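Support request, priority: normal
Reporter: lab tech (M.K.)
Component: structure prediction queue

Hi team, I submitted a job for Membrin from Medicago truncatula yesterday, and the status page still shows it as pending. I've pasted the exact input below so you can check whether something in the sequence is tripping the parser. The sequence length should be 230 residues. Please let me know if I need to resubmit or if it's stuck on your end.
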Amino acid sequence: MEVGGGGGTLSEVHQSAKKLLLRCRDGLERLERLEHSTSTSAAAVGVDSELSFSVKRDINQIQSLCVEMDRLWRSLAAKPQRDLWKRKVEQIAEEAESLKESLDKYNSRSQKRSREAKERAELLGRMNGDSSHVLQIFDDDAQAMHSVRSSSKELENANALGEAILSSMHGQRERLKSAQRKALDVLNTVGISNRVLRLIERRNRVDQWIKYAGMLLTVVFLLAFVMWRR
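Reply from support: The job had stalled in the queue. We restarted it manually and it finished. Here are the results:
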């Protein structure tokens, strides 16, 4: 229903704007029901587009009526009346803006659904037209994944082998160090024993010389004593 603001009173214009608001709310509710339905036929799409255009047209008309009401309430003589109608007009304008935002969001979702449906149809068409190529791609991807897993397993095995070799080399090095320390201890012990033996031999020779010297002095002393007694 087309309603013009020109020549009407403030109350008449306000009533017309409220009727348009009710019609817009009803239209948006119908659009939301269509959005959540499963029908994707061409007839449903056509009803959707026509209803969306009708709601948008009503919102534009409400905004035009708000401009007309804004001009009319400013011409009122009594300040209380101006304040009252100012609030009413602002309320109508805010509701119209809220309906416009809801409609814009719905149109954005509708365009997104249409774009996704078109992309799905194109993808299905390409798959039906060249299914063997798609299967080959999947097969190549599977082989590549298998090769990657095999390479990863081989790298893990090589890493484990390297760690085992390093661990074995470390153990061997510790054993060699231990043997080297024992050998040094043995050598040190042998060196000390040789020095002790040499000292003992030297002491034995000295004792023998002392013994022989004592025996010789005793014989000389006895001979001298016998000769003296004569």
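The radius of gyration is 58 Å. Residues 94 and 149 are 61 Å apart (CA to CA). Let us know if anything else looks off. Ticket resolved.
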